[in-house]
Amino acid sequence: MPKRIILHVDLNSFFATAEQQTNPSLRGKPVGILKAIGRTCVIAASVEAKKYGVKTGMAAFEAKKLCSAIILLPADFDKYADITYRFINICKTYSPTCEVFSLDECFIDISETEKFFNGALACAFEIKDRLKSEIGDFMTCSIGISHNRLLAKLASSQIKPDGLFTITEDNALEILDQSDLLDVCGLGFGLYTHLVGLGIDNFPKLRLCSLYFLNKHFGSYWSLHLYNVSRGIDNSPVMPLAEIPDAKSVSRTYTTHRLLTKKEEILKLMRNLCEETANKARQMNLCGRYVGLALRSSQKSYWGHRTLKTYIDDGKRLFDLCCQISQSWPIDHVRFCGVTLGMLTKNQYLPIPLLPSDKRQLDLMSTIDRINKRFGDYTIFPAQLLGMDIVRPEVNGYFGDRKFRLNFLRNN
Amino acid sequence: MSYETSINESIKIWAFFDPSTPLGVNIFPIAMNWRRRLIKFHKLIFTSSKKIGEVKILNLVCASETANFELEYNTQNQLWKLKRIMPQN
Q1: How many angstroms separate the CA of residue A324 from the nearest CA in chain B?
Q2: Can you tell me the mean pLDDT for A219-228?
Q3: CB 3.0–4.6 Å: which of A79, A235, A283, A340 could bond A292 by disulfide?
Q4: Within this chain, do residues A93 and A227 fall inside the same structural domain, yes or no?
Q5: Which chain B residue's Cα is nearest to A23?
Q6: Structure confidence at residue B25 (pLDDT)
Q7: What is the pLDDT of residue A329?
Q8: End-to-end alpha carbon distance in chain B
């Protein structure tokens, strides 16, 4: 196998830096990003806030305790999506093999193209320069260069912010040994806890474990994964933009600002999320026959699903099914709701309506979709959603729906 | 300390449209007339765009000598709005 050259580009403290780019008076100050005004969870922290120990996922009051001067701002996902798209446009000019890993991270396989840009280091410096000139002078990124994805990602985390680090075959084991197990992508908290339980808390110890021992404790898949990770081996390819796999399910989740205690407002939220899920499926030209619903209160979680014989893409039908699923649940004090439409297929396989009422319903839906596409989401919406703050489409940090989003952004 | 003041008022802008720029947004505001005052911009700090239905909305942050201004340009009706004012560093 020829030696690969892979770049991992990671925008530093993305959401917070984007706000500092927009508002220069925030630069050099600790900034925390909340999902919206009134929310209590910090979803991103600036480099300055991180110095005080503020982390993503921390409660706002905890962040205030650690750093009383922290400036908490609501997120602006339209802005972040726009920056992401411009960031991807920069990255993909260096190789067609460019994988969008999340909203603020890209892998670029420049094995075939680095010679056109005078090598990997020149590529990395050019990306940094273009980020500043084409997006904003305060935007920085950390770039890791290595011969596989695992080590490229580890390399980019070595120097932050605005770092550049190369891991070669010579220093790979040394860098791994200096890293914590959790620093490596693909080794999550579950595996970590299991490993620590066995007395393995660093990479040198993990490397001493035989494949047989790992197989006994972690099964055939994870044993090989751990064996390879501990040696810095990763043969996974960089997935180009054009080869992003189709979505397997479409879902929309929402955590509320406050506990919802009235059944009416819980059903409104559920209807809203059903409309969101169905809308997204229709925009992706998909329909599904698996419906999942999750509700969570401060004490208890409920999860249920139905598998249908026919495919659906209609928010009202999805909502009716969710009502059936949740019929026996004591719905009160809801904090979280999630609706999933799975077992997807192309919507051209939907049955052709025979009855006039079904035909009318289909026509109505496509007319509403056309109006909303022209004038904006929820220009026309179900009357049930009147009197509530409608939950609207937004990007998420993991960019789980990247195929849809990238097509969507490309059309804008 | 306040880091921004929301304004959200329609304003008049003098802008330079440059189709040759490599940036995603090729509009450079030069000055604005706001509440009978002429404010000249000397730098475009940041641009972003979003879509509301089929209408493209551009957001531009411009720096004057005294403050930074976030402007919004509606590409359909070609109207400008002053969204907020932010202090300089």
Answers
A1: 34
A2: 93
A3: A340
A4: no
A5: B86
A6: 59
A7: 86
A8: 13
Q: Which residue of chain A is at minimal alpha-carbon distance from B59?
A: A79
ipTM: 0.91
Contact A22 B70 (CB under 8 A): yes
Range of the domain at A255: 249-410
Do residues A181 and A192 make contact, with C-beta atoms less than 8 angstroms apart? yes
* Number of residues in chain B: 89
* 3-class SS of residue A250: strand
* Cβ-based contacts of B61 with chain A (< 8 Å): 22-23
Q: How many residue pairs bridge chain A and chain B with CB atoms within 8 Å of each other?
A: 63
Q: Among A243, A263, A287, give the residue marking a domain's end.
A: A243
**Residue A242: per-residue pLDDT:** 79
pLDDT, tens digit, 9 for 90 and up, residues A15-71: 999 999 999 999 999 999 998 887 888 999 999 999 999 998 899 999 999 999 999
Q: Give yes or no: residues A89 and A186 share one domain.
A: no
Residue the block writes with tokens 């698996």: A290
A199 & A153 share domain: no
B15 near A CB under 8 A: no
Which residues lie closer than 8 Å to A165 by C-beta, 6 or more apart?
A142, A143, A144, A145, A155, A156, A158, A159
**Whether A45 and A194 share a structural domain:** no
The residue from A243, A276, A304 where one domain ends is A243
Active site residue A275: no
Min Cα–Cα distance to chain B from A25, Å = 4
Whichever domain contains A111, its CATH number is 3.30.70.270
CA within 13 Å, CB half, A83: 34
Pick among B6, B43, B46 to test the A interface (most A CBs inside 10 A): B46
Domain limits for position B64: 5-87
User: CA–CA separation, A307 vs A327, rounded Å?
Assistant: 16
Whether residue A285 is found in the same domain as residue A369: yes
The number of distinct structural domains making up chain A is: 3
Quick check: B63 contacting A, CB < 8 Å? yes
Number of domains making up chain B: 1
Contact of A60 with A41, CB cutoff 8 Å = yes
